[in-house]
Amino acid sequence: MRVSAGPLTSYEIVYDIASVTAHHDCPDIPFSIRRNFLKTFDNPPPGALIERYLGYLDDKPVGYLELNFPQLDNLDIVELDLLVLPEHRRHGVGRALYDLAVERAEVHHRKHLQASTVDRHPDGTAFAESVGAKQGLVDLRSRLDVTALDESLLAGLRAEADKRSTGYTLRSWVGVPPDDLIDGVAYLEGRMNADAPTGDLVLEPEKMDAERIRQGDLTRERRGRRNYQTGALIGDRLAAWTSVVAELDQPAHAWQSTTIVDPEHRGHRLGLLVKLENLSLVRREKPALEAIDTFNAAANAFMLKVNRAMGFRMVDSWIDWQKDL
Ligand SMILES: CC(C)(COP(=O)(O)OP(=O)(O)OC[C@H]1O[C@@H](n2cnc3c(N)ncnc32)[C@H](O)[C@@H]1OP(=O)(O)O)[C@@H](O)C(=O)NCCC(=O)NCCS
């Protein structure tokens, strides 16, 4: 069989490869519906330069490579998504696509390739080790079963958080943040790579501003997704912020995304407070919601403790790899 890699010829093929691979690797994570997935191609997040390639066995496309070259910060890295259909693995398609990734990284003067694998199957880890990548960070995926929430436990947590956070007020919104809060959101989101553990990954804080946040939410909407958010304010200043993102066509599932408390406001249970309030918002907006998934660095003891208290339970473990070129 002849192995080769070449440019993308059809968005539909990518969906066929990515959906089958995702279902094989993590069957409990609902995969994007085709219509929304296809919208991602023309609506990248701001600051992302994306290249896409297919891997072939003879003339059959069986693998997919997506490379994201960040344009606004992290100019030394390239993020890589590399997938081969389960029944066509171990024929060298992954390696052919990887070699192309290295070639493209060199063209863009990138020094580090970064990618993630899940621990449910040996393939990803074995492949990453075979190309000499190093483990940069371990992430845990945890799930909140929204159909079995312990309401009295949540009420108790809320009462405790309220007690510890007097003087702060809560605001919730959907999509682009209100004008008076958007700079605060950009400031907090921009802190993430500095404040959350990044292990041995070469990652610098993202350069965020109001316009990048606005465009991020607008392109997310165009991809069929919605961002549910809650902030805690002291006066008119945002001190903590959390975000849950969900595909509109997936009524049962959502992703808990960023939660961050400004360093000078830590110790007031604001992380827990905004998460609890935002959970109420998401449950109102998505009444058929059954599960919320989230990723946390295994070393992020504080966030894991908050999540565990709310009822999140660990599902699987992921490794973020880095290959230095
Ligand atoms: C990782 C993945 C892309 C590899 O695709 P592939 O076409 O099977 O890869 P290759 O056939 O080119 O394998 C190259 C080498 O990786 C190693 N390898 C890959 N899978 C392996 C496995 N299950 N067990 C042991 N070694 C493995 C071997 O050294 C292999 O060389 P060999 O077959 O000559 O021994 C594929 O398994 C996949 O799509 N996994 C899910 C997504 C993922 O984890 N992507 C990786 C991001 S880094």
Describe what you observe in this structure.
The chain has 325 residues and is an alpha+beta fold. It is 34% helix and 34% strand. The chain folds into two domains: 3-132, Gcn5-related N-acetyltransferase (GNAT) (Aminopeptidase); 141-316, Gcn5-related N-acetyltransferase (GNAT) (Aminopeptidase, 3-Layer(aba) Sandwich), CATH 3.40.630.30. It has nine helices and twelve strands. The protein has a twelve-stranded mixed beta sheet with strand order 1-2-3-4-5-12-6-11-10-9-8-7, sandwiched between helices. Coenzyme A is lined by residues 21, 25, 82-84, 89-95, 115, 117, 122-124, 126-128, 130, 321.
* Mean pLDDT over the full residue set: 97
**Order of SSEs, N→C?**
EHHEEEHEHEHEHHEEEHEHE
CATH topology of the largest domain: Aminopeptidase
Structural class: alpha+beta
Taking the sheet with the most strands, its summary is:
12 strands, mixed
Q: How many independent structural domains?
A: 2
> Distance N terminus to C terminus?
30 Å
What amount of the residues lies in strands? Answer: 25-35%
Q: Which CATH architecture of the largest domain is right?
A: 3-Layer(aba) Sandwich
- Main sheet: which strands, in order across? 1-2-3-4-5-12-6-11-10-9-8-7
CATH superfamily of the largest domain: Gcn5-related N-acetyltransferase (GNAT)
How much helicity do the residues have?
25-40%
Number of helices: 9
Ions and ligands: coenzyme A
> How many strand elements?
12
State the shape.
globular
